[in-house]
Every structure is written in C-alpha cells, then in structure tokens.
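Pair request: fold both.
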Amino acid sequence: MSRRESPPPPSPPPPPQLLGVRKGDMECEDRPERAEPLSDTEREIIQDTWGHVYKNCEDVGVSVLIRFFVNFPSAKQYFSQFQDMEDPEEMERSSQLRHHARRVMNAINTVVENLHDPEKVSSVLALVGKAHAIKHKVEPMYFKILTGVILEVLSEDFPEFFPAEVQMVWSKLMGALYWHVTGAYTDVGWLQVSSSAV
C-alpha cells in the first residue's frame, strides 16, 4: 500500500463463534440436534459472574443495546420508539431503550437463575423466540449478533470477572440461548435463519 492510499475502512466484527452452534449452522435444517449442555462447574461460573453483572443490570443492558444499535443500525428497524436515534447519548437517555434493556437483562437473569432446570430455560427462551418471530418479526440473525455484543460488553466492562476461560463458558451459554431461540422460530414455521448481511 502506498503512502497516499488510505487503509480500507474496518468492517464490523463478525459475531463470535458460539459453542453449541457450529459455524455455518445458519439454516434451521442444519441446527445441531441440541445445545451443548453446561456442566455443574460451568453453571456455577456463570451464576457467580452474573451476580456481579446483575448488580448493574440496567446500565449494562443499556450499554449492550447501544453498542448493538450503533454497530448494527439495521436492528433499530424493529423499535419504532427509538429507531431514528443516532446519537448514543440520546439512546442512553431514552426511557424506552432503558425499559427494553431491563427486559433483556431480566430474561437473561431468569435463564441464569434456572440453569439447574433445563425445562424452565427452554420455556423462557421459547417465549422470547416466539414473541420475536410472530409479534415483532425480528430476523433471527439479530439474536446471534446480540449474543456476541453481550459477550463483548461483559468482558470489557467486567474484565476482572471475565478472563478467557470464563468467556468460553459464557460463549457456551450464549450458543445455547441462540439455539433455543432459533428453535422457537422453527416451531412457528420460520423456515430459514437468515445469514444475510446486516
């Protein structure tokens, strides 16, 4: 590259490879038969680290949604209340965004509190998936992207609690969340989990 050429603009980072959902498993027909189960030790790690995160659940949730919407602005199309917001500071002040951030964090909290009960986890995530598929018509690829954003924010905002080995355990959980949510999409007749560009 000559000195006069500027480097190409950076592309948005791809969602991380999630354990339990193999790379390329974007079509429902190719979904793994089941999510990779968590061990007792992994459940304890998730619950311990979540305790630190959940103390600041609204702020963390807002950080997640702001990063999600700034990096993937097409996701805002599903939110009439704040789809026209461009400024992260305006998003941060939005009561509607804060409300949705609490809902996201509370759903994750319900999953984390019930990791010992796979049926409850499956039920909660099926409700989330079906609502987003039927009522909100959200492309399921946004869940894969969102799980990656959640992992980024947690590891950056809580580095002391999210070393690499803990991040791997959380990646496994996020893979399971994505697997359950996309399973709900399949159940309601959503034929393909789109991998189209965001």
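--- second member of the pair ---
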Amino acid sequence: MAFDRYTAVCKPLLYTTTMTRARCYGVVVLVYTIGFLTSLVHITLAGRLSFCQATSINHFFCELPTLLQLSCSDTHRNKVVLETSAVFNAMVSVVMIQVSYAYILHTVLQIPVGRRRLKVFSTCASHLAAVTIFYAPAFLTYLQPHEVSSWDQTKLLSACYTVLTPTLNPFIYSLRNKEVKGALRRLWEQKLVPRLSRF
C-alpha cells in the first residue's frame, strides 16, 4: 500500500505502467510466501518441543510466545527464531513504509497549492493510521522482553492487533469518502455540539 501511494503521488504519470496487475500479483505472492515459510519454520520447531502437564494456554488464542511458555523442553532456539523473524519481518515492512512516505512528504512539500497538499495528506493518512494501529501493539507484543510484560498486558496488546485493527479499518478507510465525512459532520453538529453547548 505504501508503494502504491508512493507511485500515485510521486510518479502519477507512470502509475498505470508501474502498478501493473502482474506486479500487484507478484507482491501478493511474495508476501504470502514469506508468511507461509515463516509459519512453517515456527511450526516445525514447535513440533519438536515436549509439553509436560500444562494443558491450557493463558491467552485468547494459541499464539507462539504463550505456547513456548508451556513447553518443558529447551525453547531457546524457538525464541531466537521468533525474535529474529519478528525483527526481520517488522523492520523490512516499516523501513519500506518509512522510505515511501519520506519520498511522498518530499514530493508533497514541493506542491505549490495547499488544497492539493491536503488531498494527498488525506489519502495517505488513512493508510498511516491503519499501519500505526497494527504495528504499535505488534511491536510491543513481540519485541519487548517477556520478563517485563505481564500476561494481561500481552493479552491486551494481542487483542489490539487482532481485533482492533480489522474492526477500525473499514471506518478509517471510509473517512476518505465525502459522503461519510458529510454524515459525520452532520452528526457532530446535530447531536454532539448542542449537548456540549449546555455545559
């Protein structure tokens, strides 16, 4: 999405030749392949672990760090692979997003008309909001030392990136729609502003 925004803002005349259907399919295949291979490595390593008496996971779902807590065998290799893959996958994504948006910001600041700048910022803001809502809790879940985090904090952070992000995505991306903005503005003016003025 960041590359799509970069191409649309920084090289609009080349957009249709750059963002071809084949390139989009290639990116999707690449992302799914990396996700599949990463999961396969984790499943293979977790399948070699032995579990003693614990039969329930103190979590909402069977997440790998909580599964490793139940094992009575050595999980050092699993933890190293988990942290390495988390750092690699997260950092590659975040660096690509940051580089794309740095180019976009550079291009936007060269646009002389303020209204066009606002349009570009509103187009990119929804993607940045969705990325931030997803990556912030995911970073805190996977990249902080587990001795520091409590189980309740880990559950809350996991719920944020598994429940909150998909729930808010339709709302965030629909804010770019003029009709939705108008409806929210009318709701604000008719329902909320009169109540606030009573105080």
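Observation on the second member. DSSP finds eight helices and no strands in the chain.
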